[in-house]
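Field: COMPLEX_INPUT
Field: COMPONENT_COUNT = two
Field: RESIDUE_TOTAL = 834
Field: MODE = joint
Values follow.
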Amino acid sequence: MVTHPTGSVTARPDGPLVATHPSSCWQCNAETAPELFCSACDAIKPLPAQVDYFDVMGLPRRLALDEEALRARYYQLSRRLHPDRYQTSPERARAASLVNTAVLNRAYRTLRDPVERGLYWLTVHGESISRNNKQVPPELAELVFDIQEKLQELRAVRGAEAAADLRRDLEAEQGVLLTRRGALMQRLQDTFVAWDTGARPAEALLRELKQILSEIAYVRTLSRDMARELEH
Amino acid sequence: MEDRIFGIDLGTTNSLIAYSEGGTPRVITDPETGEALLPSVVSFPGPDEILVGAPARALAVEHSLETIASVKRFMGLGMEHVTVADRERYAFVDVAAGVVRFQIHGRTYTPPEISAHILKALKHRAETVLGEPVRRVVITVPAYFNDSQRQATRDAGRLAGLEVLRLVNEPTAASLAYGLDKRNQGHIAVYDLGGGTFDISILKLHEGIFEVLATNGDTRLGGDDMDRCVAAWLLEAAPAGMRRDPDVLGQATAAAEGAKIRLTDVEETAVAITVDGARVERPLTRVQFEALVLPIVERTLGPCRQALRDAGLTAADLDEVVLVGGSTRVPLVRRRVQEIFGRVPHTELNPEEVVALGAAVQAGVLSGGHRDMLLLDVVPLSLGIETVGGVMERIVERNTTIPVTARQMFTTFVDNQTAVDFHVLQGERELAKDNRSLARFKLRGIQPQPAGLPRIEVTFIIDANGILNVTAIDQRTGREQSVDVKPSYGLADEDVERMLEESFDHAEADVDARLLIEARNDADALLRATHKTLREASVTPAERDVIETAVRDLEAACDGTDHNRIRELTEALDKVTTPLAHRIMDASIQEALQSRRIEEVG
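Field: COMPLEX_OUTPUT
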């Protein structure tokens, strides 16, 4: 037997591939499409591993979604699906409650955050970006260069008086990044609306989505690294 | 009817048991003392004697090595996490790694086994008071407990013969107790500083849904640390050679705790102990005390800020702040909490009982009551696997609502490889070695194939208890793949089974030990009273002879371990001394009457 230290091929959350194979209900044997509750007998029914998050939430596939409505829907489904509600139920129902609540939680976590929602949309369409984006977006090149230089200086003079000035500069640049991120988030929203209304061709929108999300990922990582350095 | 479900707060310093009746949670008090709090102390004064609670705590100085207090600090930990101070305090099995084991009277005990004795005592209390069996329970744990610590708590329940239906996070439980009568909406922060652990949880309350947005904390920070701090300060006044003496340390810690409690109400107190017959005493003002413990209180503030950040809120967004845990009685803690959150914190419910009450509320939810209430809790620490290069790859982020699943695909690296190992970790650091190792898994029985061809999909499920379960499927065959689990700091299922069997073997011994202690205590009390009587009352030589024989017999029996014989001889002595006692009583009554008459006359 040969073993190897750890290693994995790919990481992915509950994937976007929509399972449409019907499955039979554990309680009444009715063959139905994947659903939270059996449409024949209302028993809780385990979802397949891969389902569409909008489907789980029972929401139309709209990117510019109403976050309050999403939360209300999440609470409503949680009340019916949560394992706390199935403590005294048969084992099959308890297991289904665990699976379905886990999927529901994942779906809610993904859809409530515009960036996560956008990334999910990309995977649904067979696209993806690296979340740990190291490629500098051209528009940010100058700012990034300046920040990196100052961070390096800061590491060199840590504790010395000169550090105070550098810190002030970097804090100001953090503000610039924050503004930048705000603008990117607005563009993301605009793209969502454009998609929902079919204002522009899907292919162009996917490209734009990809570019905005890469930039957001980049700014996010950079801000986090800066915050970490400044906390020292 | 199904058994009632009970709620248990298994605390570092004290433990409680509560139940719900007609939607109202109640703590169960000790039928003899009326106390709700059971000190979380277990003592083994002799090889087959076990005491729990206040009687165990009373032995902390006399039997310091055999008396385990604050065992919760060791739950789910490995020997490499045991500190120098811990080693000075207790005797551990001398190994470098693996689960913590105490060495007492030549036997070894893991923390879950010690905790099981506390749970058994609570179970016994509830059964005595309510006259019904206690089988199914909800047990609370610090929100910041990792997977190993949660598993250890669940194992303790199993070892106590309990079915642990759910582990609930302590601050969340507290919020349930608060939410019950107030119908709150909005954002609340629960600041929970107990004897040994600190938690901060930020929740959103909405129409009976208690959604935890973020949690943070420190599972080794609490009132115990304040006591140690004050004890060290007191011992500066003791001879240097005695400062590490376990008895002296025990005394100093107890004196420090007393002073801490008094300083909540008074401005100044004295802290005193006896070392080698000499009195060591220092006056302590509240101001001085606050200066001593300030660093401990300050350590709670970082997690508070992080939890707010993770929840995406600022202090101004909070509607309420709730204080939980005995250590929040310290005025300095209240002041600092008020400063950081900008709110006067709520303290309406007893901070020592509120967690147990909340556990009882959740027990009610699980039995189908409180249909409007639902708890949505989170995993406190990110979960990940070690990848090549010793980096932790996160697969579940902290503060993700549970239950939650994540999937990961594994393959082989060498031709015909039939097994793949992976290492699961919990924590927020980048490198695997800086995070807490939870377990090593081995996927076995993979079909021999060229490297990279097998596709084994592993599903990680964190259930509603915050505990990880792992399953694997061979994508090619669709068959379930066997997974071996080797917990890093926990007990394997076989260990728990073995301990359960052992405890059944010992169950009779346990009961006998308790009966023996009780019989000896009663005999002691009667012997003392008899000696006093013999000195004071007028006794005929014949009476004296009979009594002295009975005393000798009983004293001899007390040196043995037959509790029935001790009981018998105690009764015999009681019988021969009763006439004497009556005579003394009569004499003293007459004396009293006599003196009154004199007064009246005078």
